[in-house]
Amino acid sequence: MIPLSWYLTLSAALFSIGMFGVLARKNAVAILLGIELMLNAVNINLVSFWRYNNPVLMDGQVFAIIVFAVAAAEVAVGLALVISIYRRRNTVVADEIDLMKW
Amino acid sequence: MTAAQIIFLITAAVILGSAFMVVTTKNLVHAALWLIVTLFGAAVLFATLNAGFIAVVQVVIYIGAIAILFIFAVMLTRRSMTDTGPGLNRGWWLSAAIALLTFGGLVWLVSGWGGFTKAAPAYPSGFDAVAALAHALVSPEAFVLPFEVASVLLLAALVGAVYIAFQRKGEE
Q1: Rounded CA separation A79/B45 (Å)
Q2: From CA B138, how far away is CA B144, in angstroms rounded?
Q3: Taking CA atoms, what residue in B is nearest to A88?
Q4: Contact by Cβ (8 Å): B28, B83
Q5: Residue B102 confidence class, pLDDT cut points 50, 70, 90
Q6: What are the DSSP calls for B15-80, one per residue?
Q7: Residues with Cβ < 8 Å from B3, sequence gap 6 or more?
Q8: Could you read off the pLDDT of A34-77 as tens digits, one per residue?
Q9: What pLDDT sits at residue B171?
Q10: Which of A19, A38, B146, B157 could pair with A73 as two cysteines, CB 3.0-4.6 Å apart?
């Protein structure tokens, strides 16, 4: 049987890769892709904690479902913002969107 | 090495490799397609964890809706079909250092926890996880309030997304 540590290490690695994507990418859509990777790492953690604690308690799976809903809402609003910015400024590079930068 | 461990290792290699391609590929359409591979790998992991419903939801919502939405957004926001310039910031090595530090810190933190290497308890025979999940989502003693709040959040997000991306007459 697989020990819990394998799942936790994998999801820590996936979270770090997503964080690198959020910090290092220039394109705003690519930054949102990195956020999706981080949310998936969290979901793997939640479901493995559900399985390795007491599978009769459904809390872990309910949390994963709520994360799905929040991810869908976040992507819809985020991509709408990116498309709106692209229409007005003709760019999706995060460095060039600096109207509110001091 | 049992069969389950071999399946886990192959899936983990696919997930990490495709996630690395998501954050490093210059072509954004390819990055979105690599994201689909990563999401499929996560669905396989959910299936190995006896969470069949979550695996199906992962395929339907993440791959069927979110990844396709990403591909549409990439197609709508391209100046030309050729990507110019580097895909990464000038300070990308600093981001890599922060990501490595985060990974090390997370592993160090959870490895100090007592249940880190614990094995899974036996799955109760005859236990219907989908029915239990459905009861948990609508039972007033459990999670009916977060469930309803999530639906309100989705409605607000969809209305907001339509409002933000709507092109008014006379604009452009």
Answers
A1: 28
A2: 5
A3: B172
A4: yes
A5: very high
A6: HHHHHHHHHH-SSHHHHHHHHHHHHHHHHHHHHHTT-HHHHHHIIIIIIIIIIHHHHHHHHHT-SS
A7: none
A8: 999 999 999 999 999 998 888 888 888 999 999 999 999 999 99
A9: 62
A10: B157
Read off the pLDDT band of A3 (50, 70, 90): confident
Q: What is the pLDDT of residue B80?
A: 53
Structural domains for chain A: 4-96 (1.10.287.3510)
The CATH number corresponding to B1-82 among 3.60.10.10, 3.30.40.10, 1.20.120.1200, 3.40.50.300 equals 1.20.120.1200
Please state, rounded to an integer, the average pLDDT across all residues of chain B. 86
- Which residues touch A70 (CB under 8 Å, ≥6 apart)? A39, B150, B153
Report DSSP state, residue A95. G
Residues of chain A contacting B38 with CB distance shorter than 8 Å = 14, 37, 40
C-alpha dihedral, B105 to A6 to A56 to B50, nearest 10°: 140
A100 in contact with B, Cβ within 8 Å: no
The residues spanned by each domain of chain B are: 1-82, 128-172
Lowest-pLDDT range of A98-102, B57-61, B140-144: A98-102
Q: Residue B81: what pLDDT? A: 46
Residues from chain A that touch B72, judged by Cβ atoms under 8 A, are 79
Which of A11, A15, A46, A68 to mutate against chain B (most B CBs within 10 Å)? A68
**Which pair of structure tokens corresponds to residue A76?**
């819809």
